[in-house]
Amino acid sequence: KESKVNGLSYESTKGLRFDNGVPPFFCKDKGTMRTIVNDCPVLLVDGEVSSPKQLIPFVKASEGVQKLAIVADGFSDLTMDLMAMSVARGFIVLPIKAPYYGMRRESFMKDLAVVLGAKVIKPGTDDVASLGSAKTLNVGLNETIVTGSVEDISEHVAQVERELAESTSEFDGTQLRDLLAQLTSGVATIK
Q1: pTM of the full structure
Q2: Does residue 70 register a pLDDT over 70?
C-alpha cells in the first residue's frame, strides 16, 4: 500500500491468499489489474452459479454497500454477462473462481468461511444470513488476498492442529501445515 508518511511500516492481519482472481473486466484499476475493496460482503457457493436468479437475494442484501464478492466453482456465461452489466452501472461485483479441486476445495471453502464469518451454501440457496464479510479484499487476475472480519479463529486453528496430528498421509500433512501457516501467520501488508 502507499503510505501517507515516509518510511516503512508493517501490518499483519488474519486472512488467506489463494491463486485465483477475476477476469480483466472486473478489475477497477486497469493499470495494476487489481480491485481493492474494504468491508465487502462475500458469498461462498459450493458449486457453479448457473443462473443469475440465484444471486438476486444476495445482490439486494448488498445494495446498501454496492459491492459483492462471490467465490464459487464457476459461473455460467449468462451470469457473467449480468454481473458485467452490474459493474457498468457502478455496483462492484467480484466473481472469483474457487481454488483447488475435490476435497481440498471443499476444505478450503470451509476455512475461508471461518475467516469471513460466512457459511458455504449450495447453488440455489437464498439464505442471506450466510453472507460473510471481508475487511479487505485485494483481487487481481491470478490471485486473491482476503483479510477476514472474524478476529478469533483460535478454535478453528486448534481443529486443524488436531487433524494434522491425526494425519497419516504425507500429502494431507503438507496441505494442513500450509493451511495452519496461513491461518496463524495471516496476511502482511508493507506500507
Answers
A1: 0.80
A2: yes
